[in-house]
Design a protein that fits this description.
Layout: H1 2-30, H2 33-37, H3 39-62, H4 69-74, H5 81-86, H6 92-113, H7 119-143, H8 167-196, H9 201-232, H10 243-268, H11 272-294, H12 308-332, H13 347-377, H14 386-406, H15 417-423, H16 425-441, H17 447-464, H18 477-502, E1 504-510, E2 514-518, E3 521-532, E4 536-547, E5 553-555, E6 558-562, E7 567-571, E8 573-577, E9 580-589, E10 595-603, H19 606-639
Helix pairs in contact: 1-3, 1-7, 3-6, 6-7, 6-8, 7-8, 7-12, 8-9, 8-11, 9-10, 9-19, 10-11, 10-13, 11-12, 13-14, 14-17, 16-17, 17-18, 18-19
Length: 640
């Protein structure tokens, strides 16, 4: 009965989404306040029903109810509890139910907490949310029912993909979905503002927390996913420009541009058209990512579906939502006032340059991701990988770093070039000094890598410059957030460039007691032994690692064997030091008593993920600071 109750909750939530959309349309057209006012409670109940459906799906996985097709295909009775729960969203149907659940909860949150928008704009926004939710409810109910039953239930189930049986993957997808849904809320705000011709600072202040929240979750999700791929897949890299990796990066790039635009609109009443268009683009990128992952046109450990019918359904939703939004934008853009003006050399001008560069990078990633797919449809097989993306996007990304360093040091509306150069003296000096040092010690590593190292140092200095000569205790929290995020970019960039410049690799066929040197480490291969885990068996290597006169450390890389489904995986063993990581992978035996070992010394590679977390932390600080300021402003208005 649990599955039937979950399906009933889904149908009721879908019906309420339809009712919410119809009531919003009637309320806007007839200007009847009683009809428009009823949209709020409908959104709240619909969100609650979506949450009920998802909780019931998790319950089915925890109970290992193999009569439910989704549970039988993506779980096993012997799996640890964490992976039973994660199995609820580690598949196509469950992940889409998570999507609509977060979407419903977001709509309910807007209905409960939003008080800054005008009543008509709020009604239009909730109508937009209902339209998005309705499409995904239809997709679930007619093409991806997560509660479908089996006529004959298997005893144990097929199990979850072993590569996904990892604590990182238990939390990685939800964070991305929170980000995607946050962008859908921004999209709904933009549609609501266009419908009611209410594109102004008030609308931007209402939308900004959702954009910030979405951006924070996307940052966490991408960072966590990168680290998961790094340690779980056993290839020693942190980003491969896989199409599904790109599918999460593209919304983040658009959201980053949107975040800066909505800040200008909220505080300076500028970039109105930019803000609306970027809200549409950001949601478009999340929809394209959804299509890529679920259409069956990609083969990837990240991809969920292999059914092109489902991909066609999502493509139709993409055409309806984005086509309709662009048509509305074209119709109403003439009614959107330009807002305040500013000089090119100003903070607003730097933010426009920031948006342009981010948009160019987004275009490069989009073309590089979709071009092989389009070519394949015409019978041409080709691959677009790191060489293209690094060469095309790398120089633009470094130029973006320059803008990122200078932007916060510019004044609003108008500034003087001489004053800017004076403020940039220390960052420029730090970058030049670092570039000179690295050019001497690593001249063979290429221009992009050297400039990446130098600019990272310069950006780090520029990031803290807004705090100079300020009372730190009275500095607003959102200013701290900007500083921390920009510093995180500098740290991550340094880690990326250092990994490219200084990584050392050794691939050996080692006998017992053989010693291999990689970087500053000596690695002694002791041998292998069998071992078992909760739902796997393994061959485990023993490596004794020493660095100079330091203490010995034992690393145990594994080859794991899963029975359900039958899969072999490599489990890397990693030694983390203050200045990098030693990364070890156990390969295959060669039949002559030797085992393949892959060893990497990766200096400062951990800065990549530390920087990513700092970027997210800065966004969270900005979100808290902005919300606090808005609440204080609302309280002052209430007392006035």
């Amino acid at each position: 009965m649990i599955a039937e109750a979950g399906l009933a909750a889904l149908w009721l939530a879908a019906a309420l989404s339809l009712l919410q959309l119809v009531m919003a349309a009637i309320g806007l057209r007839t200007r009847r306040e009683d009809v428009a006012g009823a949209v709020r409670p409908v959104a709240i109940v619909g969100g609650a029903l979506s949450a009920v459906a998802f909780v019931l799906l998790i319950t089915l996985f925890v109970q290992s109810d193999m009569s439910v097709k989704l549970v039988a295909e993506n779980s096993h009775s012997a799996k640890p509890l964490l992976y039973k729960i994660a199995g609820a969203w580690g598949n196509h149907e469950g992940s889409m139910l998570l999507w609509v659940t977060v979407l419903g909860i977001a709509g309910a949150a807007i209905a409960v907490f939003e008080r800054r928008l005008s009543a008509t704009t709020l009604t239009a926004t909730l109508g937009g949310q209902a339209a998005i939710a309705l499409g995904f409810f239809a997709f679930l109910l007619f093409a991806s029912n997560p509660f479908a039953r089996l006529h004959i239930a298997p005893p144990d189930g097929m199990g979850l993909n072993p590569l996904l049986q990892d604590p990182g993957l238990a939390f990685h997808p939800p964070t991305l979905y929170f980000g995607y849904v946050g962008l859908s809320v921004a999209f709904s705000f933009a549609i609501g503002a266009l419908v009611t011709r209410d594109v102004g600072p008030g609308f931007a202040r209402a939308m900004r927390p959702w954009v910030l929240g979405a951006w924070v979750f996307l940052t966490i999700g991408i960072t966590a996913g990168s680290y998961w791929a790094y340690y779980e897949l056993g290839w020693g890299g942190w980003w491969f420009w896989d199409p599904v990796e790109n599918a999460s990066l593209m919304p983040w790039l658009a959201a980053t541009a949107l975040l800066h635009s909505v800040t200008v609109l909220a505080t300076r009443d500028g970039l109105r058209a930019w803000t609306i268009m970027l809200a549409v683009v950001a949601f478009s990128m999340s929809m394209i990512g959804t299509f890529l992952v679920r259409s069956g046109i990609l083969t990837s450990v990240h991809a969920f579906a292999v059914d092109p019918t489902r991909g066609s359904f999502i493509l139709a939703l993409l055409a309806i939502y984005i086509g309709g939004a662009l048509a509305l934008f074209a119709i109403r853009i003439g009614t959107v006032r330009a807002g305040t003006t500013f000089e090119p050399l100003s903070r607003e001008g730097a933010l426009v340059a920031n948006n342009l560069l981010l948009t160019v990078i987004l275009g490069i990633v989009l073309i590089g991701t979709l071009y092989p797919i389009v070519a394949a449809s015409f019978g041409t097989q080709l691959s677009v990988g790191p060489p293209f993306f690094n060469a095309a996007a790398g120089p633009i990304a470094l130029l973006l770093v320059v803008v990122l360093a200078a932007g916060p040091l510019l004044r609003w509306r108008k500034d003087a070039l001489g004053a800017l150069v004076e403020r940039l003296t220390w960052p420029i000096g730090a970058a030049a000094l670092a570039l000179s040092i690295f050019a001497v010690f690593a001249p063979w590593k290429g221009v992009l890598t050297l400039f990446g190292l130098g600019l990272a140092v310069g950006l780090a200095v520029a990031s803290v410059a807004p705090l100079w000569k300020r009372n730190l205790r009275r500095t607003p929290l959102f200013t701290w957030g900007m500083v921390v995020s920009h510093l995180g970019v500098a740290i991550a960039l340094f880690g990326m460039a250092a990994d490219s410049a200084f990584t050392r690799e050794a691939l050996v066929a080692a006998r017992a007691d053989q010693v291999t040197r990689v970087g500053p480490f000596e690695v002694r291969f002791v041998g292998v032994r069998p071992t078992v885990g909760p739902n796997w068996s393994a061959i485990e290597g023993r490596l004794e690692v020493t660095r100079g006169a330091g203490a010995m450390q034992v690393l145990r890389p594994q080859q794991r064997f899963f029975a359900n489904p039958a899969t072999t995986t490599n489990e890397a063993a990693i030694s983390t030091r203050w200045d990098g990581q030693l990364y070890t992978v156990l390969g295959q035996p060669d039949g002559a008593g030797r085992w393949q070992l892959r060893l990497w010394w990766k200096p400062f590679v951990t800065l990549i993920w530390a920087g990513g977390m700092l970027i997210a932390l800065g966004g969270a600080l900005s979100l808290i600071g902005r919300v606090r300021r808005e609440r204080r402003a609302d309280a002052r208005e209430a007392w006035a």
